[in-house]
Amino acid sequence: LELVVHDSIEEVAGINHFKIFMDKIRNMFSCSPKNSRELAEVAKGLEEQMLKIGRVLDTRWVASSLMAVKAVWTDFKALYNHFIEASEDKQRDSKQRSTYKGLCSTLSSTTFVHNLALMFDALEELSDLSLQLQKSSLNLIQAHSDVTLLIKVFENRVENMGRRSVEAKIAIDDLMFQDVKLCVRSKIPSIPEKQFYRSLANNLTSRLLSSSNAAENYTKIM
Q1: How many domains does the chain have?
Q2: Which of 173, 194, 181, 175 is nearest to 14 (CA)?
Q3: pLDDT given for residue 110 in this prediction
Q4: Is residue 214 situated within a structural domain?
Q5: Of 188, 197, 131, nearest in space to 162 by CA
Q6: Domain housing 10
Q7: Is residue 216 part of a domain?
């Protein structure tokens, strides 16, 4: 699965920018006990997830990336408020305040909310498939069927948004997400939803051989 999505990351614009930003959030807290303690005070669950996970969209990334994206989605308001307070904290030097201001600016952009929702929807589906493929009771025919089903889900997503993307669209239209005012920032690249899902479906399909050759296909996907 990691190879499938790696291909999509290479093909679809905007994903690398999202990855870099998520890693920047993680590094802010994993490299500083002080920052980690401050985050824990406002969002304990987010702090725990950001420290436990690896780099987003890195090797064997499906489960850990879902945890990170879900944590930011769930504690979005708390994270935003923390960034705002840190950017105005006179006890921090100007470089730190500027860094937090930049993080806050990106986090509160309509584009980031769109990207966050899109990645949440896609990662959730991929994580579910990953868990299915790890079951010891799973046979090759069922594995082949599960992958085929996910391909159909992604093909459907080309025209029909996932649940979080629907929520994000409403928030973007209202310029408000979890009581945080959103701003349009054209410099932040948006992940093209249709292209992303089409790429995922195509890359899964390219690695999925015929049912008669399911054993070889299963090995490639795992």
Answers
A1: 1
A2: 194
A3: 98
A4: no
A5: 197
A6: 1-209
A7: no
